[in-house]
Amino acid sequence: MNTAYFYLTDEGGKLAHKLAAAHPGDIYNKENFKENLRAGFGKYDFLVCIMATGIVVRILAPLIVHKTSDPAVVVLDRKGNMPSAYFPVTLAVQMILPVKWRPFLVARL
Question: What is the predicted pLDDT for the residue at 86?
């Protein structure tokens, strides 16, 4: 499963790099953020966005096609609290989030 991490703040960047060390993926910062996030929606299976939910929803909502073809999108705050899936999530990602991500997020990296 190919993964991309998107962040806007320095604190979010630290979390993105820690998560990517445990579950490898490409990391994108605020440079060309909107364009990269939109492009990532069509390129990756799993998007991890470390920022406010509203930002992600406004950018990606027009791109949603169908739950069977869209990537999973998980939004975290900059401290890694409260992971939430806001777009269609496949069964595989529903299984990966609790098993692979929760230990890292609960530890509050």
Answer: 60
Considering only the C-alpha atoms of the chain, give the largest distance between any 2 of them, rounded to a whole number of Å. 35
What's the fold here for domain 3-106?
Rossmann fold (3.40.50)
Q: Cβ(30)–Cβ(11) under 8 Å?
A: no
Closest CA to 56 of 68, 47, 65: 47
Which of 32, 20, 35 is closest to 3 using CA atoms? 20
How far is residue 106's CA from residue 109's CA, in Å, rounded to a whole number?
8
| pTM score, whole prediction | 0.79
CA distance 38 to 69: 15
The full set of domain ranges for the chain reads 3-106
